[in-house]
Amino acid sequence: xxKGVLLTDFLESNSDIELNKVLLSLAEGxxxxxxxxxxxxxTNILGVTGETNVQGETVQKLDDLSNKILMDYLxxxxxxxxYLSEENEGVVTLNENGKxxxxxxxxDGSGNIDICAPVGTIxxxxxxxxxxxxxxxxDFFQTGNKTIAAGYFIYGSSTILILSTGNGVNGFTLxxxxxxxxxxxxxxxxxxxxxxxxxxxxxxxKFDDGVKxxxxxxxxxxxxxxxxYSLRYIGSMxxxxxxxxxxxxxxxxxxxxxxxxxxxxxxxxxxxxSYLAEQAGGKGTDGTQRILDIQPTELHExxxxxxxxxxxxxxxxxxLKG
Length: 322
Ligand code: AHG
Ligand code: MN
Ligand code: MN
Known about the structure:
It is a single chain. β11, α5 (209-219) and β12 (230-231) form a beta-alpha-beta unit. The strands form three sheets. Strands 4-3-5-6-7-8-9-10 form an eight-stranded mixed β-sheet, sandwiched between helices. Strands 12-11-13-15-14 form a five-stranded mixed β-sheet, sandwiched between helices. A two-stranded antiparallel sheet has the order 1-2. It contains eight helices and 15 strands. The chain is globular and about 55 Å long. By secondary structure, the protein is an alpha+beta fold. The protein has two domains: 7-185, Fructose-1,6-Bisphosphatase, Chain A, domain 1 (2-Layer Sandwich); 196-320, D-Maltodextrin-Binding Protein, domain 2 (3-Layer(aba) Sandwich), CATH 3.40.190.80.
């Protein structure tokens, strides 16, 4: 690895100028978001706006601010044709001549801001399908196999961009002195064998027996397979996925009993995270198929997700099959 590689140096090896424009505008916008979060308690931007978004969820002031900042910066990139966000009901056209469209969760885990737990910005980038002009919903109905680049910015003890453009996963830590992103986590690989499981155990009664049996398996005593595994759950997908990428394990948000969909959204949470997981040698499924194979039909559709170390996702599938 070249010493002291900055994000800007790293992207120079990527000849797609248009994609670099989108990524660098995202990186600049997320510097602002990170600073707002670090100072939230001082600048009275904690708490809620009083509105409810298309998901029927309470909008945090920082959800709204993050969304606006990202649209401004991506508009300035000139390479971004369209924008889909958890916080907007419909798609937004930014640059009619842009090559790429982006699906974004402007602030994931925003319920955690008030307790200073990790939150983040998740993104997935594909090429538009329609020719120049306004974008439409159909532009966004592409499977994760069409992803050109995906990643997230995690605002935690440091701000880190976790990024894949199709050749593995790299992490860039924001240097708060010179405001540059530095290649701090080259070539991230998810441990083949995980020893951590992550889900909202409080919902266990709502889940199918297969999930319950897998969770019992994880908590059984068996030295030979290093069980019981540890249960870790942050309640921010970016935080739980960051731990899964770095330490291995499995993160699960299943559907409720008899249901098909979980809570997490396909286009701007589960596809980008599954793209990263696969690029890092792990897996991301909905319990039966790869997340990246799911054909989206609605902008804010949800899915179940089982993501992380290969061995644990495979083990979970054994229990789901019954
Ligand atoms: P968001 O803040 O973007 O709405 O996402 C919250 C999601 C995700 O970050 C996390 O994994 C999940 O909600 C936690 O859900 P529960 O509180 O139901 O466990
Ligand atoms: Mn989210
Ligand atoms: Mn969100």
